[in-house]
Amino acid sequence: MESALLPTYKRFDLSVTNTNGTIVEDINGKKYLDFGSGIGVCNLGHRHPDVQQAIETQLQSYWHVSNLYHNPIQEEVAKLLVQQNSGDFVFFCNSGAEANEAAIKLARKATGKTKIISFNQSFHGRTFGAMAATGQEKIQRGFGPMLDTFDYVPYNDLDAVHQAIDENTAAIMLEMIQGEGGVIPAKQQFISGLRQLCKQHNILLIVDEVQTGIGRTGKPFAYNHYDISPDIVSVAKGLGNGLPVGAIIAKHELYNVFGPGSHATTFGGNPICMAAAQAVLQHVFQSGFLQQVEEKGDYLQEQLIKKVGNLPFVSKIRGKGLMVGIECIGDVSSQITQLMQKGLLVLSAGQRVIRLLPPLTVTEKEIDAAVGLIHETLIAYPAFLHS
Ligand SMILES: *Cc1c(COP(=O)(O)O)cnc(C)c1O
């Protein structure tokens, strides 16, 4: 197909025309179960009625006001975010990368130090600072030299972090579950160790919850699975259920670091996106909802372990809540295409991991159907072909 777009994506042969809940419909009227949620974005399912209603209502009053003026809906969304977070105040932007840029700038200005420790296989976004934070050669290739701000160390390796710390270390930045890197959860001891190191050396802890935040793992934020309270948390993907919005949530000690004029954005905190975010947060943080996410996540993992865990092509199933990885022994791209052809949309994470991020509203029936299709697909692959 002739396209006027830059070829920055290798696109699947699928043109979406309609969506509803977990279902995506293509141009031929074929229906798919969406277990990617638009890469962890439409966490309440496509076009959730509460979110749609909130957006439509907001469209009737105002669409954009400059951040030079008060914006009451931003205040309300910020309150909802801090109620569930150990942070105390919020800066709104438009994406995950921008949230991480804000986090990096805040940490450097607050400490007057320049170095930030980040991790191999991490992913923090595609803008210059966020790309530099990302510990993956393939993301940085061709764009060098990178900022010399970041020291990359192996994930879950406390000694390596210890050795990388010096008097110029401003912060440690990490995902609680590495998403793009392969759905790799941080170990409990590693995180307790980091907390100690940060305290001892007066280093800020930045947690990138762009993918794991807003209920994805069955807790408000993935760091809630661990006994920590980060200094800065970045969020984006699931916050607007499809509308572009990102944010950092930071501790009160950092309140005065960004004074007026030091960091800003034209679109950040856009009222339409805020209306969506407000509806999302009210829904996700209502009593009992995350309990259900946790139960559905357990069910999904149980079913996967039972039905596909022992297949020769599969080496490991792991994750938290509704963020689950199926690690395989070979490249998974053809399996992902086959799953699509059978009517199930899933993601990869690295080359060998099939990543599932179904909507938090997914039903047990939909989980059963998805696991059935995954079984039917992966059973066709014997171990020796791909070892
Ligand atoms: C997707 C993602 C980002 C980048 O978010 P964008 O909105 O694409 O800029 C950053 N960090 C993590 C952990 C992500 O998953």
Automatic annotation (TrEMBL):
**Which top-level group of life is the source organism from?**
Bacteria
Question: Where does the UniProt entry say this protein principally localizes?
Answer: cytoplasm
Q: Which reaction does it catalyse?
A: N(2)-acetyl-L-ornithine + 2-oxoglutarate = N-acetyl-L-glutamate 5-semialdehyde + L-glutamate
Compartment(s): Cytoplasm
Please cite one Gene Ontology biological process associated with this protein.
L-arginine biosynthetic process
| Cofactor (UniProt) | pyridoxal 5'-phosphate
* CDD domains (alphabetical): OAT_like (cd00610)
Q: Which residues bind pyridoxal 5'-phosphate?
A: G96, A97, F123, D208, E209, V210, Q211, T266
Q: What else is known?
A: May also have succinyldiaminopimelate aminotransferase activity, thus carrying out the corresponding step in lysine biosynthesis.
| NCBIfam families with a match to the protein in the record | argD (TIGR00707), PRK01278.1 (NF002325), PRK02936.1 (NF002797)
The entry's protein name is: Acetylornithine aminotransferase
**Species assigned in the record:** Virgibacillus oceani
Gene that encodes the chain: argD
